[in-house]
Amino acid sequence: MSAMQPSGVHYRTLTHLFNTNFFWECGQWPLFPVLSYFLITFSLLSATVAHASEPGINQTSGITFSISVRTPEQIRAFYTGRGFPEAAILELESKCLLTVGMQNNRQDIVWLEPSKWRFVTGNGTEVPRVSRDEWTMRWTKLNIPLASRATFGWTQLPESRDLYPGETAGGNIVVVPPADTFTVEAIFETAANKNGAPIKFKSAPLRCGNPSGASK
Amino acid sequence: MRVKPGWMLLLALWLMPATLWAQEITRPAGLVILDGRAAPALALSDMDGKTTDLKALKGQWVLVHFWASWCGPCRREMPTLQALQQQIKGTRLALVLVNTAETDDEVFSFLPTVAPELNTLMDRDGLATERWQPRGLPSTFIVDPEGRLRYLALGGRNWASAEYVSFLNALLPR
User: Which pLDDT score, from 0 to 100, does residue A40 have?
Assistant: First the structure.
């Protein structure tokens, strides 16, 4: 859909308004405010459509969701800049970090629970995710300082979070890098007691990099 | 049925304070009401070694703001916190910043460039932040004069905006 074209629903609504007495009674209204209203409305609609069509950003059922792969260079630059020890950097570089951003634009709660998501290669092989608990064990084994562990923790997506209306969340999730491309099938339960209709997303195929800089 | 004007006036006068109160503490979007549980302990030092203990601030409202320089929304929000700080000077509202798990060098190379008037406590190992369990960074808790958690701001926002300033002013005693 082009960003310049109104969506079907809005076009039908305008056509309907045009054919009703309501529209013609607007002839009694001051021209400038009415024109301004429609211009502003169209501007906003165009902006929404343009935003939705940006690569990597999905909008459906009141959720905005994006997911992208961090390169090993980005991982090294970020965590080195934060004073992480080399042992931690090497451990992180050997994994695949996916940066997730989302916003709940609905009127009810949306549940962010990456443990329920599936990471699957083209041939159907499950890609293992490294959970927060596993990271805690790795950091303990490598004797990583508390400050680095804390920073790492705050850069990760929570394991479970009830997102309030309007709330945003962002962070990384980590998977063991597969040789092949893979997709992320994310599922979000809705409503405070999770009895609303779940919302599902499937990402475009993603590919992890390797520390040498070349894609696998 | 005829209603005497005197009774109507009395009713209006009785309802007026409630209406004014409702207007004054209109809660801005993105501010969640908490259950009033006691705020976790918080006693940290700033980069000059001066310690602030939340217990010593009892009797006033306190904004406890957790942040880190690597977090984009934190960086955007910081100048608005400085503007808020200017507006709440001399009131019974205090602003306490807590940097999460960064070094003095990291904070010093960031904070003076965007908000030179602000000082921050240093949660150097991140354990104090962990005790408070913010939903993410940035997070701002609003603590009442009895030391109870009353509100939580979800993510970054413009603290110097009219809606936030009027909301915070409405919390303060007249």
Answer: 52
- Is residue B33 assigned to a domain? yes
The two beta strands, B93-100 and B121-123, are parallel
Does some domain include residue B20?
A: no
Q: Where are the beta strands (DSSP E) in B84-168?
A: 93-100, 121-123, 139-143, 149-154
Q: Is the pLDDT of residue B50 over 50?
A: yes
- Judge whether residue A86 has pLDDT over 50: yes
Residue B66 lies in a domain: yes
Residues 6+ apart with CB under 8 A from A157: A100, A112, A114, A169, A170, A171, A172, A173
Chain-centroid distance, C-alpha A31: 42
- pLDDT score of B99 more than 80: yes
pTM score > 0.80 for this model?
A: no
Contact status, residue A102 vs residue A168, Cβ threshold 8 Å? yes
* Residue B58 contacts residue B146 (beta carbons within 8 Å): yes
3-class SS at A207?
Answer: coil
What are the pLDDT digits (tens) for A51-72? 333 456 788 899 999 999 999 9
Is the peptide bond prior to A55 cis by the omega test (within 30 degrees of 0)?
no
Q: Domain holding B57: CATH number?
A: 3.40.30.10
Nearest-CA distance B59 → chain A (Å): 30
Which residue is it, tokens 């030179």?
B116
Q: Is A204 helix (H, G, I), strand (E, B) or coil?
A: coil
User: How high is the pLDDT of residue A17?
Assistant: 36
If one counts the domains in chain B, the total is: 1
User: C-alpha dihedral over B161, B167, B172, B173, to 10 degrees?
Assistant: 130
What CATH number does the domain located at A57-202 have? 2.60.40
ipTM: 0.81
Question: Whole domain around residue B156: which residue ranges?
Answer: 28-171
Q: What are the angstrom distances between the C-alpha of A85 and each of A75, A164, B42, B72, B90?
A: 13, 36, 28, 23, 44
Residues of A within 8 A of B102 (CB-CB) are: 82, 147, 151
Phi and psi torsions of A172, nearest 5°:
-100, 150
CA dist A20 and A76 (Å) reads 62
Residue B154 to residue A166, Cβ atoms within 8 A: yes
Contacts of B136 in chain A (CB under 8 A): 154, 158, 169-171
User: Does residue B34 form part of some domain?
Assistant: yes
* B30 contacts A146? CB cut-off 8 A: no
Only one residue has tokens 């300082």, namely A145
